[in-house]
Write a sequence for this structure.
């Protein structure tokens, strides 16, 4: 095999000392360094996650304990965010509520990620009837005003947190299915998929081992982007009185409770949970943009 | 037409003078100099070729001349003077005025250069109006005239065509019409014929040279193809790794190349009267004579036999679903289908390599994909080693033991490797699925053995495709194809995406592997020079039919049909 052992000069020069050119971590560090907004979003995310994990433990007051003597107090050193009309500490309530709001968002996004991802990839890869059915289901859902659809689902299934999760997942389904379908469709006839067929992989195996790993990064970005929307949706449902019920601390309910007091000058009751909501949505959207840069192989040079 | 510095008097000032140009790109790992101290001059009416392999900086040089470097790149040193204007330091408005009116550019992919949703005639009008070459009342007439000048038949009708309605060659003609619309003085053609068939390439290049000569324009042709440069240019600049290594008149550079790199490039270019071994650099070629390939065993029955193979597609793919739903329209069934392959028959003997050549759209890829059992035939017979494999549905074939006996090397090494898998995993995939190898160590050992066989350093096995060079990716693809010791390997233009020096190595590798493993090749290609070197027999296809087949020397040496003759005549040859 004398001929086969030869290499072009490029190949000889190539055994570069760092075998791994860029690890995901160092790449992520580079993207964050280049784009500080992503770093800010990541910091916000850590803060939110801390509240969600440790909220009840680190909250300065019991979020449910009312103290009529201290009701409707403006923000002060004792109550940073003030108190509501039952004298409950708003800072504590905002912190504790993070767990419920993020929980609803995470579970619903995970659910729709699994459902939409699998059916979308199947539709894009197999085409034909699978594509037709998945496409029409997505179209049907898209035909409704999504928030009204979510209201309908929660009203019909019952007023529970589980049903909020299901409703949020259903209204996000078309987004996921379409992204997954488009990504899988592009790769259906890619050279490496053909090569996998030649290597003796069945169709199902090709979907799982060849197509899915390539669709995943885009889906993760999609997850982050819809996460904010899912939080907003859950809070919106609670705001109009569906889903979570008082006195459970939840950002949407808290905004609803405080809304009536704004006119009488107690602005802090609605403002702080509203701000928390806004920051959370903001954080996930920015994080999605940053993630898009991190997972895009084109930007890794 | 060569102009040396001393003969350059005041009246012979070159149209374009590039002096000591250095272009730096800011990357994450510091500054990279893509072009270093390059000096080029182009006289009025001169045709200059810049030749080099990928990464030689030839395109970057032209971008710097046009001042269209992307954001990361900047001219670090040197000057670019175009008819007295300092392009490097001129204000953006002045340069914008130069671009299009004084110098224009043709890009590699004509379809990407045209707006897909605007009629081609309108696009020419846009350019004419923007540069005040026409007023709205006569723009249409001028646009049609421009189309006529680039030899587009029935320009009045084509004026209304959208880019997707035209073939690649036609689109390139429209792009040329756009580039020439404002009578520029300098035309930069960046690989204008890559991706076009040889006959189209000849037509496009003839047109460019003729039009620019008639107008006294200067041309810079950027190409990797020495033959093309020699056939169409006055002077050739050879670049390697960002530096100019040699500048000489075209005729001289082929007779007496001076720089070792030029010699190496010349050697590696497939041409008449050489063998595969001749393509390799002298120092390597001396080390091993080609092992004599075992003579094709003609006495035994052929390994592959294809009889009257037909593939038809529905004519309008988009309406397929609708007509199924509403019942197919009555009418002539011939109208509803398009015959990609129209009844072809051929055979491949054991140990033989057969070239399948033809222009794009002739059905050669469809044929090879059917033989590969990736798509189903419409009619006919595909017999492999006496077994009728044509009747096994394509989606069932993947998991059959027969699968390991027919393998394929794909055209684009990048596209055929999963970007998320390492080289080792790509090679291991067929071993684990069909090879019956179990255990990580056994698979790994076999992967390393295969990597050594194809000349891939084993430490590269853990890299991802984007960390490998084009040649290395091609080797991974070849290692994967031969992993199961197949009897028939289909090579679908395996070197089309590679530089000539890498191509020379890969072709030799394929030849050696065939000899040592006793495989048969079906080599699909449009490059007759490569087919000549690698194949025992050639099949020429045109519009889904075989027009000629026979031993390579006979078909390429004494072609029987006009089509084969036209194909051979269109290959640009270096003047040797």
């Amino acid at each position: 095999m004398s001929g086969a052992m030869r290499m072009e000069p490029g190949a000889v020069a190539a055994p570069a000392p760092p075998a791994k050119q860029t690890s995901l971590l160092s790449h992520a560090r580079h993207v964050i360094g280049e784009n500080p907004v992503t770093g800010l979003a990541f910091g916000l995310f850590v803060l939110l996650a801390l509240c969600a994990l440790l909220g009840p433990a680190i909250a300065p007051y019991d979020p449910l304990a009312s103290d009529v003597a201290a009701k409707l107090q403006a923000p002060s050193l004792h109550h940073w965010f003030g108190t509501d009309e039952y004298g409950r500490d708003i800072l504590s309530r905002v912190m504790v509520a993070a767990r419920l709001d993020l929980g609803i968002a995470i579970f619903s996004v995970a659910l729709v990620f699994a459902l939409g991802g699998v059916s979308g990839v199947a539709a894009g890869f197999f085409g034909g009837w699978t594509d037709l059915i998945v496409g029409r289901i997505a179209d049907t859902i898209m035909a409704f005003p999504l928030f009204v659809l979510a209201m309908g689902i929660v009203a019909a299934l019952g007023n529970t947190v589980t049903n909020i999760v299901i409703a949020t997942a259903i209204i996000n389904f078309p987004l996921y299915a379409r992204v997954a379908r488009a990504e899988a469709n592009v790769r259906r006839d890619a050279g490496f998929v053909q090569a996998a067929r030649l290597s003796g992989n069945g169709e199902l195996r090709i979907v799982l081992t060849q197509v899915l790993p390539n669709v995943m990064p885009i889906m993760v970005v999609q997850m982050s982007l819809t996460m904010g929307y899912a939080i907003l949706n859950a809070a919106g449902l609670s705001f109009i009185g569906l889903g979570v019920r008082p006195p459970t601390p939840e950002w949407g309910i808290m905004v609803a409770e405080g809304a009536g007091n704004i006119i009488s000058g107690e602005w802090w009751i609605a403002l702080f949970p509203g701000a928390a909501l806004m920051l959370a949505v903001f954080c996930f959207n920015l994080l999605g943009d940053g993630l898009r840069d991190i997972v895009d192989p084109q930007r890794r040079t | 037409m060569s102009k040396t510095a001393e003969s350059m008097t005041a009246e012979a000032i070159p149209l374009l003078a590039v002096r000591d140009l250095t272009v730096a790109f800011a990357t994450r790992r510091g500054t990279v100099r893509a072009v270093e101290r390059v000096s080029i001059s182009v006289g009025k009416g001169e045709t200059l070729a810049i030749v080099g392999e990928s990464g030689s900086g030839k395109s970057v040089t032209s971008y710097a001349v046009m001042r269209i470097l992307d954001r990361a790149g900047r001219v670090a040193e040197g000057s670019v003077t175009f008819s007295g204007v300092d392009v490097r330091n001129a204000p953006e408005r002045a340069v914008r005025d130069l671009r299009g009116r004084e110098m224009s550019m043709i890009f590699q992919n004509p379809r990407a250069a045209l707006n897909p949703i605007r009629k081609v005639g309108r696009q020419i009008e846009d350019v004419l109006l923007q540069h005040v070459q026409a007023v709205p009342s006569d723009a249409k007439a001028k646009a049609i005239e421009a189309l006529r000048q680039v030899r587009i038949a029935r320009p009045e009708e084509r004026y209304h065509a959208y880019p997707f309605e035209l073939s690649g060659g036609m689109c390139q003609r429209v792009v040329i019409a756009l580039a020439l619309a404002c009578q520029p003085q300098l035309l930069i053609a960046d690989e204008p014929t890559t991706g076009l068939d040889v006959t189209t390439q000849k037509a496009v290049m003839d047109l460019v040279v003729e039009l620019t000569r008639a107008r006294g324009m200067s041309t810079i042709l950027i190409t990797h193809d020495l033959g093309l440069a020699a056939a169409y240019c006055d002077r050739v600049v050879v670049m390697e790794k960002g530096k100019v290594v040699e500048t000489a008149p075209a005729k001289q550079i082929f007779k007496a190349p001076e720089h070792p790199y030029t010699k190496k490039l010349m050697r590696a270019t497939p041409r008449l009267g050489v063998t595969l071994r001749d393509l390799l650099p002298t120092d390597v070629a001396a080390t091993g004579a080609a092992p004599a390939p075992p003579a094709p065993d003609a006495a035994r029955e052929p390994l592959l036999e294809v009889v009257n193979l037909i593939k038809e597609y529905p004519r309008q793919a988009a309406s397929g679903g609708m007509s199924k739903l509403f019942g197919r329209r009555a009418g002539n069934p011939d109208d509803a289908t398009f015959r990609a392959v129209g009844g072809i028959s051929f055979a491949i003997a054991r140990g033989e390599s057969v070239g399948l050549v033809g222009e794009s759209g002739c059905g050669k890829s469809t044929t090879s994909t059917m033989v590969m059992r990736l798509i189903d035939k419409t009619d006919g017979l595909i017999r492999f080693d006496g077994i009728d494999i044509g009747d096994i549905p394509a989606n069932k074939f993947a998991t059959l033991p027969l699968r390991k006996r027919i393998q394929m090397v794909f055209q684009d090494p990048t596209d055929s490797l999963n970007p998320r898998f390492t080289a080792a995993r790509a090679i291991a995939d067929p071993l684990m699925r069909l090879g019956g190898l179990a255990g990580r160590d056994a698979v790994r050992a076999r992967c390393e053995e295969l990597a050594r066989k194809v000349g891939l350093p084993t430490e590269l096995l853990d890299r991802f495709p984007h960390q490998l060079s084009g040649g290395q990716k091609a080797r991974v693809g070849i290692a994967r194809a031969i992993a199961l010791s197949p009897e028939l390997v289909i090579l679908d233009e395996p070197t089309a995406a590679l530089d000539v020096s890498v191509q020379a190595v890969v072709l030799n590798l394929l030849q050696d592997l065939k000899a040592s493993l006793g495989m048969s090749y079906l080599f699909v290609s449009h490059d007759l020079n490569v087919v000549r070197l690698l194949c025992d027999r050639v099949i020429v296809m045109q519009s889904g039919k075989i027009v000629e087949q026979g031993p390579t020397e006979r078909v390429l040496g004494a072609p029987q049909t006009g089509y084969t003759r036209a194909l051979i005549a269109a290959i640009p040859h270096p003047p040797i």
Chain B has two domains: 10-279, 304-316+337-569. Chain B has 23 helices and 20 strands.
